[in-house]
Amino acid sequence: MSLSSAFSADFDSPVVAPVPPPATRHHTPISAEAKRFVRHRATDVMDNTCQIYRGSTPDGYDEDTLVFTPEGPRELVYEGPCRIWEIAGAASVVVGDAEIYQQSTQLSIPWDEPAIIRRYDEVVVTSAPEDSQMNGKRYEIQTVAKAGELRATRRFEVTGIM
């Protein structure tokens, strides 16, 4: 009896790399001119000025020296126009025996800003001509909004630091 070396589906099937589908280009219905217009209009309503800082991680408590090393110097990552909007009332959260109040809201900065803003960066409102109560308010970045075909601004969810 002789053995055949011909292809058999039952034994030693060849491995064939999948063929990717042909590249298709998705054309957005939103023109570059429309994007520029919307982004310009969104920046025009940013009547506040903010600074966004990134702090270094604290070294913490050293058990050998019994010294707590606080957070190092902060780095200014953005300074310029911003808009704080959809301000909600503070919600209370009970942690242990303490009642903590947190205020969640939205922050926008211009779309073309090259700074990379991250979670836990701190926002300080340095100028708010329309609302003097906003001067000096501090917020912490919680999320960075991403998605959508037409983003008019860089948008972040922030919580108030009270």
Rounded mean pLDDT is 80
Could you estimate the helical fraction of the residues in percent? under 10%
Query: Beta-strand level of the residues, as a percent range?
Result: 35-45%
Task: Supply the helix-strand structural class.
Answer: mainly beta
Q: What is the C-alpha radius of gyration, as a whole number of Å?
A: 26 Å
Largest sheet, order of strands side by side?
1-4-7-10-9-8
Number of strands: 10
CA-based shape: extended
Number of self-contained structural domains: 1
- Write down the secondary-structure element order: HEEEEEEEEEE
Beginning-to-end CA distance, first to last residue: 88 Å
Q: Name the poorly predicted regions.
A: none
Number of helical segments with 4 or more residues: 1
Sheet with most strands: 6 strands, antiparallel, barrel
Please describe the topology of this protein.
Blueprint: H1 32-44, E1 48-54, E2 60-62, E3 67-69, E4 75-85, E5 91-95, E6 98-102, E7 104-110, E8 122-127, E9 138-144, E10 153-160
Antiparallel strand pairs: 1-4, 1-8, 2-3, 4-7, 5-6, 7-10, 8-9, 9-10
Describe this structure in words.
With 162 residues, this protein is mainly β. It has one domain (32-56, 67-160). It has one helix at residues 32-44; strands at residues 48-54, 60-62, 67-69, 75-85, 91-95, 98-102, 104-110, 122-127, 138-144, 153-160. The longest helix has 13 residues, at 32-44. The mean pLDDT is 80.
